[in-house]
Amino acid sequence: MNLHEYQAKEIMRKYGLPVQKGKVATTPEEAEKIAMEYNGPVMVKAQVHTGGRGKAGGVKYAETVDEVKNYSTSILAMKIKNLPVKKVLIAKAVDIKKEYYLAVIMDRDKKFPLVMASREGGMDIEEVAREKPEAITKLWVDPVYGLFPHQAKEITLSLFDGKTLALQSVNIVIALYKLFAECDAQIAEINPLALDGEERLWVTDAKVVLDDNAISKHPEIESLRDPDPGEEKELAAKEAGLSYIPLFGDIGCVVNGAGLAMATMDLIKKYGGEPANFLDIGGSSSPEKVEKALEILLTDRNVRVIFFNIFGGITRCDDVAKGIIQATTKMKIELPMVARLTGTNENKAKKILKGSPIVPVPSMREGAIKAIELSKAG
Length: 378
Ligand code: GDP
Ligand code: MN
What we know:
Elements lengths: L4 H10 L7 E4 L2 H11 L3 E5 L12 E4 L2 H12 L2 E2 L2 E2 L3 E5 L3 E12 L4 E7 L6 H7 L4 E5 L8 H11 L3 H20 L2 E12 L4 E3 L2 E5 L8 H4 L8 H9 L3 E4 L4 E5 L2 H13 L6 E4 L6 H12 L6 E8 L4 H14 L6 E7 L2 H8 L5 E2 L3 H13 L2
Parallel strand pairs: 14-16, 16-17, 17-18
Antiparallel strand pairs: 1-6, 2-3, 2-6, 4-5, 7-8, 7-10, 8-9, 10-11, 10-12, 13-15
Helix pairs in contact: 2-3, 5-6, 10-11, 11-12
């Protein structure tokens, strides 16, 4: 789960990190008010789930309240990497002398959190990583022991020479790691970590990405979720107990079990079709779940045929058949549907579906072939 900069900064503040002052606004008038309160230059910053906002024109330095209003108006009308800007952060500008980079990320290869730091922070950090990897210090942390003081010190010394800065920064490194570990983050990044003219360090940009599988441990964080366009359907499915991932093809699949869902997608591909989604209705599915699954699939305009591939075990085929019939009575479904229902109560299921327009198939192979054929017809 992605957080906005202002939300990430809120969390960082709670962990005692030196975050520059700032408040979020949804209209230019609100932005203006905040700027008047700060009485001095501010940054106007687009709040979208992507980096590179500065280069896209979504981060502006404003000296006057008028400038704040103008920048807010234009930024709130922008799309950055196709994401509409709905909020701007008005942050009291830091007088930046130098920009540093500091992050903790989950290193999936090493299976350890990785702390990274560089004296060459700012908007070109990706380029630094590519062209000058030696300018980034890397240090892996064993999560069982956590970050050792000597490790925090090592990171600090890679960034700063002076004593005042070393002291500030060692606390920043420790706090950032603590946040990363306690919030089950995948990324906790400060870029830039800014140094001002008075030898003070400031968090002027913050990025926090949380592990979706651990969100249930943090109900207060779940409430910060702001779905991106397209993400809503996945969340609705999750709420209904389904796991749904939209893809790019035209064959909608309703399957029970993740393994069978993968196998179904493979088979469709093998015979020349393209699955429109991964959708696992899970075990013990009720007719209501099947109905919900269809409801979600029908909002995908690319879908031209629906293929049910159910291997009945705990999931009962008659429940699935009931769900299909219920859905057809409640919703207007014009798409052809193919059903392979085998296993528990398959005969009952057959009876339920008899006389309906649903095309029965004896195997998943034949189901895939039939679904592809129907997707290409008419
Ligand atoms: P990003 O482009 O999405 O990473 O957005 P950032 O928040 O990092 O802003 C981009 C750049 O704007 C930074 O690298 C800084 O150079 C500059 N910037 C951000 N905040 C401030 C600030 O408070 N004062 C000044 N002078 N520059 C800032
Ligand atoms: Mn940044």
